[in-house]
């Protein structure tokens, strides 16, 4: 706990304890009740001060074009990873920035709040990062669509092809079925929407387990036809914080690293 939090919480605890003690002694002393009221007021004042300082220290959220530009220029792009001619987008600088990460999650949450969501489903692995944070922001549960062999008990499994790899698989636990027989309303979340294979597989698994997919959310869409495929195969128009097609020649602010081809 930081120094600011400690300096505020300790007096708050002391004043609360004093107020509680005073209330216990109230029947025996006519002076105890005013002491209790004063202690309670002090406790509330310290708590309010702590809250306001935390709010003041939080960076302002970004939105719209300002958010898109900041997110795009936070990435490091690695050419020829994980294979030749593929460009890997490292999102670490986004995640380590409280302002950018919070702004992205709020953009996703704003889209999802009107959908009546019961749970968020994150696609392994970077979909876990955004999915869990989004579930927390919405106040709902979180489900993992995992790679094979990671989940115990009964599972459902689907195969799919990635943009750079054939024959991948995903699993969902059968235990996400509500015991009362109702149908969960879920949103699927991933980092980048490329060919759409992993999300189509996740959608099929969730439908098989009895859930109703009401939304698909991603950090960004790549120009690989995934959005059109999802619209055609699931009937859902995916939401993305931005469309991502980096122009290496025209945008000098992009951080690009060329890796040797092995």
Describe this structure in words.
This protein has helices at 3-25, 32-57, 64-72, 92-96, 98-112, 126-138, 197-208, 226-234, and strands at 76-79, 87-90, 119-123, 141-145, 155-160, 168-173, 185-193, 212-221, 239-243, 255-258. By secondary structure, it is α/β, with parallel strands linked by helices. The strands form 3 sheets. Strands 4-3-7-8-9 form a 5-stranded parallel beta sheet, sandwiched between helices.
List keywords for this structure.
alpha/beta, five-stranded parallel sheet, three-stranded mixed sheet, 43% helix, globular
Offer a quick outline of the entry.
By secondary structure, this protein is an alpha/beta fold. The protein has 8 helices and 10 strands.
> How much helicity do the residues have?
40-55%
**Helix and strand composition category:** alpha/beta
Low-confidence stretches: 1-25
Task: Please tally the β strands and state the result.
Answer: 10
Write the layout of secondary structure elements.
Elements: H1 3-25, H2 32-57, H3 64-72, E1 76-79, E2 87-90, H4 92-96, H5 98-112, E3 119-123, H6 126-138, E4 141-145, E5 155-160, E6 168-173, E7 185-193, H7 197-208, E8 212-221, H8 226-234, E9 239-243, E10 255-258
Parallel strand pairs: 1-10, 3-4, 3-7, 7-8, 8-9
Antiparallel strand pairs: 1-2, 5-6
């Amino acid at each position: 706990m930081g120094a600011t939090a400690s300096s505020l919480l300790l007096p708050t605890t002391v004043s609360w304890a004093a107020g509680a003690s005073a209330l216990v002694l109230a029947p025996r002393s006519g002076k105890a009740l005013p002491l209790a009221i004063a202690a309670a007021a002090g406790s509330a004042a310290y708590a309010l001060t702590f809250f306001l300082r935390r709010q003041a220290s939080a960076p302002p959220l970004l939105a719209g074009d300002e958010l898109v530009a900041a997110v795009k220029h936070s990435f490091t792009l690695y050419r020829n990873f994980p294979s030749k001619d593929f460009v890997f987008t490292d999102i670490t600088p986004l995640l380590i920035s409280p302002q950018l990460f919070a702004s992205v999650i709020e953009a996703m949450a704003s889209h999802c709040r009107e959908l009546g969501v019961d749970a968020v489903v994150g696609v392994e692995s970077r979909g876990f990062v955004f999915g869990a944070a989004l579930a927390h922001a919405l106040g709902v549960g979180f489900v993992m669509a995992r790679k094979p062999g990671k989940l115990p008990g009964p599972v459902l499994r689907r195969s799919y092809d990635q943009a750079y790899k054939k024959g991948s698989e995903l699993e969902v636990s059968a235990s996400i079925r509500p015991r009362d027989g109702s149908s969960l309303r879920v949103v699927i979340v991933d980092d980048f929407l490329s060919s759409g294979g992993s999300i189509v597989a996740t959608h099929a698994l969730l439908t098989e387990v009895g859930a109703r997919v009401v939304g698909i959310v991603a950090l960004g869409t790549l120009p690989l036809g995934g959005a059109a495929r999802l619209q055609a195969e699931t009937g859902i128009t995916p939401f993305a914080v931005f469309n991502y097609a980096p122009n290496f020649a025209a945008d000098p602010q992009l951080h690009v690293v060329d890796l040797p081809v092995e």
